[in-house]
Every structure is written in structure tokens, then in C-alpha cells.
């Protein structure tokens, strides 16, 4: 990331940063569209994308779509990606997952706070509400991680381990305490304690320095699986996060752009994808369903999906009915 191109923002601007390579760019477009469509002041949003090799065609398409809803466009930030090449990647995650670590190096000292969002998200709430959260005394505002048990290997308490898909970042404290450098160092020095890409390293450095935000700001699939962890939260917070999510996070392999999906709210991705000039989702065929339902675990996921969709309908949630659009 070039230090001689530090960004500044207007006084009332809301800085939102994501990162993407070319494969994820169409899905980031859907995320940005949902963000703008549900924002009470879209003209205040300044959108940034850490560019992991996005084609000019995808950049143009993204800019066209966000401008429809009042944004000035997307600022694509190029930087030296080789810095991340020697960091290991896990499963379906690419090295672009690490780019968020360097966000403080993107802005000058006049920018005190930004929101980071993963590409596999849809924003349903008003991002201004999240933005106005006071994190003056904290390095980051985040939501407790409800998916998996990676906190065990890391060796910190479950309720001190956050999900890094949505981060409200206090840039002042990150700069002061040199958090990017500490995260990189932690990642390299503690390979035996890490079972995610950057999430474990971020938690290793910041697990006592983050503000717990409402579960609705990072709606995770763990909400659909009652456990000792979810029981520790107030019942009304769990129900609010399920029924009125501010940000839906499609964690793991079950992405909403797959031909066959099992997330109860996969249709929320379609709701915004179908408004674009070119929807990045494709229509499943009979063989796709046949392959998807060929295992007992997938059939269990289907059963859970249908159960929760029935619950949503009973509680008045407007589930999006997919239109049969092809790519």
C-alpha cells in the first residue's frame, strides 16, 4: 500500500472498506448495493476496495451500480500484494483475507474510524447506526464469533473471541499501538495457535481490546444452532439478530451465490443481486439439486433451512422469492 497516497475523508463521511480479488468482485458489488439501498444517508458513504487484481470491466460495473444509489463511486486501492504471499491460506479463503490488517496504512491521521466488511455479506440495516457506535476506548468494535471453536486452539475465552468479517476500526489506536505489525508478528510466531487466516491473529492481539457489538451486526449461522454460547446472550438479542439482522454474514462454504444454498436467508443476496444490470448468481438445474442433496449432512442442512424459513414466515419476515435469472 502506497504511503504517498494516503486518503482523507470529508468531516461527516462514513468510510467503508472491503477487499476483493476478481472472482469476488461481483459479490462485493451486491454487498455495496445492499449497503447503499438500506442507508439513510447514502451520499455520506465513501466506499473503498483493496484491489486484489480486479478487472477493469468489474470495476466499471461496480461503479455503475453504486452510482445508481447516490454513491460517488468506489476508490480502488492498489498496493504491494507480495507482502501477503508468505502467509498461509486456509480452505476457500484467499490471501485477500489478510488485506484488512493494513487498512490503517490507507488513511491519513485525519481519519479516525472506518468500517470493514467481508465480501460474503449483505447489509440489511442502516450502516449509519453502526457508524455512530462509540469505540473511543476500544481498538475495534466487533461481534462475538458464533461459528466454530477456533478460540480453543488460540487459548482465549470464547466470549473474548470476535468474528473479523465486520470490524468497526479505531484507526487512532491501531496506529498508536502499531496493531498491523503486531498482527503480522503474531501470525508468524504462533502457527500452532492459529486455525483461521487472519481472524485468530487479530484476536491474539486484540482479544482484550474490543467492544462487543449487538449480534445483529454480524448475523452468523451459529444463531440457528442453539448452544451454551448462544444461551449466554439475552433471549431478545438472539431473536432480534435472527429476525432483524443488520448485516448477514454467509460464513463458510455455503455462499449465497452457489447454485444450491442452505442458508435460511440466502434469498437476501438474491434480493439485491436481482436489482443489478447483471446478476452474479446462476440458475440451478436438476443435476445441481441431485448432487447437493446426495449426502446426509446436506439433507440435515436442508431440513434446518426449511424449518427456519417457516419460522421467518410465521414471524412476518418478508422472504425474497427468487426470480429465475441466469448470469
TrEMBL record:
<keyword id="KW-0808">Transferase</keyword>
<dbReference type="InterPro" id="IPR002495">
    <property type="entry name" value="Glyco_trans_8"/>
</dbReference>
<protein>
    <submittedName>
        <fullName>Glycosyltransferase family 8 protein</fullName>
    </submittedName>
</protein>
<dbReference type="InterPro" id="IPR050748">
    <property type="entry name" value="Glycosyltrans_8_dom-fam"/>
</dbReference>
<dbReference type="InterPro" id="IPR029044">
    <property type="entry name" value="Nucleotide-diphossugar_trans"/>
</dbReference>
<keyword id="KW-0328">Glycosyltransferase</keyword>
<dbReference type="Pfam" id="PF01501">
    <property type="entry name" value="Glyco_transf_8"/>
</dbReference>
<keyword id="KW-0479">Metal-binding</keyword>
Amino acid at each position: 500500500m502506497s504511503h504517498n497516497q494516503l486518503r482523507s475523508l470529508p468531516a461527516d463521511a462514513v468510510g467503508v472498506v472491503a477487499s476483493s480479488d476478481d472472482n469476488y468482485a461481483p459479490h462485493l458489488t451486491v454487498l455495496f448495493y445492499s449497503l447503499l439501498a438500506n442507508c439513510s444517508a447514502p451520499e455520506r458513504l465513501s466506499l473503498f476496495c483493496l484491489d486484489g487484481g480486479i478487472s477493469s470491466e468489474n470495476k466499471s460495473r461496480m461503479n455503475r451500480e453504486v452510482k445508481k444509489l447516490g454513491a460517488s463511486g468506489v476508490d480502488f486501492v492498489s498496493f504491494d500484494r507480495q507482502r501477503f504471499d508468505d502467509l498461509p491460506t486456509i480452505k476457500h479463503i484467499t490471501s485477500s483475507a489478510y488485506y484488512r490488517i493494513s487498512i490503517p496504512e490507507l488513511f491519513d491521521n485525519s481519519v479516525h474510524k472506518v468500517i470493514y466488511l467481508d465480501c460474503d455479506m449483505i447489509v440489511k440495516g442502516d450502516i449509519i447506526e453502526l457508524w455512530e457506535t462509540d469505540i473511543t476506548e476500544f481498538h475495534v468494535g466487533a461481534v462475538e464469533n458464533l461459528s466454530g471453536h477456533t478460540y480453543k486452539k488460540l487459548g482465549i475465552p470464547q466470549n473474548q473471541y470476535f468474528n473479523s468479517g465486520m470490524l468497526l476500526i479505531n484507526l487512532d489506536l491501531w496506529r498508536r499501538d502499531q496493531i498491523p505489525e503486531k498482527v503480522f508478528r503474531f501470525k508468524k510466531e504462533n502457527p500452532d495457535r492459529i486455525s483461521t487466516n487472519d481472524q485468530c491473529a487479530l484476536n491474539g492481539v486484540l482479544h482484550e481490546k474490543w467492544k462487543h457489538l449487538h449480534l445483529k451486526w454480524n448475523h452468523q449461522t451459529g444463531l440457528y444452532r442453539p448452544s451454551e454460547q448462544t444461551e449466554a446472550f439475552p433471549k431478545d438479542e438472539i431473536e432480534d439478530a435472527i429476525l432483524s439482522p443488520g448485516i448477514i454474514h454467509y460464513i463458510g462454504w455455503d455462499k449465497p451465490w452457489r447454485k444450491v444454498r442452505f442458508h435460511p436467508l440466502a434469498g437476501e443476496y438474491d434480493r439485491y443481486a436481482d436489482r443489478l444490470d447483471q446478476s452474479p448468481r446462476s440458475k440451478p438445474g436438476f443435476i445441481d439439486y441431485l448432487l447437493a442433496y446426495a449426502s446426509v449432512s446436506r439433507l440435515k442442512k436442508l431440513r434446518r433451512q426449511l424449518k427456519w424459513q417457516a419460522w421467518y414466515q410465521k414471524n412476518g419476515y418478508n422472504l425474497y422469492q427468487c426470480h429465475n435469472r441466469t448470469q
